[in-house]
């Protein structure tokens, strides 16, 4: 779905207002973000929000391998104890999550279990709107990070999406974040050797010349990255017979997650003013043959996140980055007849980074005391948002989340 169609959809659905969309409609480039380098408090933290579109199966991501009810509900889909990456004597990570397992052992991964909201909605559209607006009781008209942006001055560069269209979560009542395209940028007709010469730093050069060189260097590196992404895209994308259109209007970015996170890393290392980044990956609507498809997708997530967290650990600014990973809902406890799972409710939220207190948080949801076949949530997702607003973005959560006072204690 192109950006114009996306905007029309959002206006028609009432998820965000036309004023906010207009505020975020201008085209932003990486150079626009780099122009803010040095404008932020060096002690300020940065939030990176990773959305897994389609409804990732939480039970086969954080696996309750020791629970007989898990194996009874999923005879062919369940993982055996020897197949998974153990966190303790009851739960483990999916086999594809080797990097996250290492980060958990290093105390840099927190798993918040049983996250959801009252009266859950199993529609991709409505459930994602609820997560984006943080207003489960009624249809929201602004995104939770958009409302935060309204309160801190409204500069779009403070909240940036590297997705193909501005996600509703970044649209406020009077402002909206910036959408910066990762793909579709070209270096023009100049040969690479010419660009390299223009990008070269010269001793004693003026500040203007240095800035120009930096812009050419950025243009050259991004162009090379995009070429690499396009060449590897067909190999990286999981194959699925009869694959449908993305389950949500954004459907996850078309550019691989590691490329989006590389852009985030460049911004963090440059010291730009951006405090919140949004990236995504789609394809998690696993109604059939789930194990193989989910492992491919989680493998992409694992490689991208573990490399990003390791890279961030090398700098002071990077060590202040907190990554939050979520999906619009989990899957039903019982497998369906196609060796997949159908739309469910509660699931896990992952927090990663050097400033995260690793471990398991929240009580594991019961696999036998169910709500019409679905997990009962134990942690309201607004508790997670409030914690991120307070501990990462240094904002009173009540101003953004309608006086919400819950928190996830001890995780940050």
The best one-word shape is globular
**Would you state the CATH class?**
Alpha Beta
Record field, number of beta strands: 12
- Give the N-terminus to C-terminus distance in angstroms: 37 Å
Strand content: 5-15%
According to CATH, the fold-level topology is Alkaline Phosphatase, subunit A
Could you give a short account of the major beta sheet? 9 strands, mixed
**Poorly predicted spans:** 1-15, 17-25, 184-190, 228-250
**Count, helices:** 13
* Fourth-level CATH superfamily: Alkaline Phosphatase, subunit A
Listing every helix as H and every strand as E from the N terminus to the C terminus, the arrangement reads: HHHEEHEEHEHHEEHHHEHEEEEHH
Count of distinct structural domains? 1
Mean pLDDT: 85
State the secondary-structure class: alpha/beta
Helix content: 25-40%
CATH architecture heading? 3-Layer(aba) Sandwich
Radius of gyration: 21 Å
Protein model, in words:
Mean pLDDT is 85; it is low at 1-15, 17-25, 184-190 and 228-250. Helix 5 (98-105) packs across helix 11. With 412 residues, this protein is of the alpha/beta class. Strands 1, 5, 6, 7, 8, 9, 10, 11 and 12 form a 9-stranded mixed β-sheet that branches. It has 13 helices and 12 strands. It has a single domain (3-182, 240-400), classed as Alkaline Phosphatase, subunit A.
Write the layout of secondary structure elements.
Layout: H1 3-13, H2 18-23, H3 30-34, E1 46-52, E2 62-63, H4 68-73, E3 85-86, E4 92-93, H5 98-105, E5 109-116, H6 124-133, H7 144-151, E6 159-161, E7 178-179, H8 192-199, H9 207-236, H10 257-270, E8 276-281, H11 290-312, E9 321-327, E10 347-352, E11 359-361, E12 379-380, H12 381-391, H13 397-400
Parallel strand pairs: 1-8, 1-9, 5-11, 5-12, 6-7, 6-8
Antiparallel strand pairs: 2-4, 3-4, 5-10, 9-10
């Amino acid at each position: 779905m192109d950006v114009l169609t996306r905007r029309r959809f959002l206006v028609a659905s009432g998820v965000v207002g036309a004023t906010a969309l207009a505020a975020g409609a201008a085209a932003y480039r990486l150079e626009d973000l780099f122009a803010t380098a040095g404008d932020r408090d060096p002690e300020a933290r940065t939030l990176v929000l990773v959305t897994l579109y389609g409804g990732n199966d939480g039970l086969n991501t954080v696996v309750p391998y020791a629970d007989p009810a898990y194996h009874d509900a999923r005879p062919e889909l369940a993982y055996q104890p020897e197949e998974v990456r153990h966190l303790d004597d009851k739960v483990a990570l999916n086999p594809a999550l080797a990097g996250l397992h290492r980060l958990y052992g290093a105390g840099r991964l927190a798993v918040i279990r049983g996250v959801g909201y009252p009266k859950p909605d199993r529609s991709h559209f409505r459930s994602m709107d609820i997560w984006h607006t943080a207003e489960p009781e009624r249809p929201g008209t602004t995104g939770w990070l958009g409302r935060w942006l309204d309160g801190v001055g409204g500069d779009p560069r403070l909240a940036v999406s590297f997705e193909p269209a501005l996600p509703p979560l970044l649209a406020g009542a009077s402002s909206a974040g910036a959408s910066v395209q990762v793909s579709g940028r070209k270096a023009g007709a100049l040969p690479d050797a010419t660009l390299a010469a223009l990008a070269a730093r010269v001793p004693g050069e003026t500040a203007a010349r240095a800035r120009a060189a930096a812009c050419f260097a950025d243009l050259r590196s991004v162009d090379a990255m995009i070429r690499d992404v396009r060449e590897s895209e067909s190999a990286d994308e999981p194959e699925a017979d009869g694959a449908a259109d993305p389950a949500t209007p954004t459907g996850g970015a078309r550019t691989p997650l590691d490329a989006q996170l590389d852009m985030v890393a460049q911004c963090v290392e440059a010291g730009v003013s951006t405090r919140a980044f949004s990236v995504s990956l789609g394809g998690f609507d696993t109604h059939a043959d789930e194990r193989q498809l989910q492992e491919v997708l989680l493998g992409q997530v694992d490689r991208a996140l573990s490399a990003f967290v390791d890279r961030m650990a090398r700098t002071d600014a990077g060590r202040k980055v907190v990554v939050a990973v979520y999906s619009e809902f989990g899957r039903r406890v019982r497998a369906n007849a196609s060796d997949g799972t159908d739309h469910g409710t509660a699931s896990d939220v992952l927090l990663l980074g050097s400033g995260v207190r690793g471990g398991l948080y929240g009580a594991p949801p019961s696999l036998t005391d169910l709500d019409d076949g679905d997990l009962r949530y134990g942690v309201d997702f607004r508790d997670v948002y409030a914690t991120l607003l307070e501990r990462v973005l240094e904002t009173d959560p009540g101003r953004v989340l309608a006086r919400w006072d819950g928190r996830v204690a001890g995780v940050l």
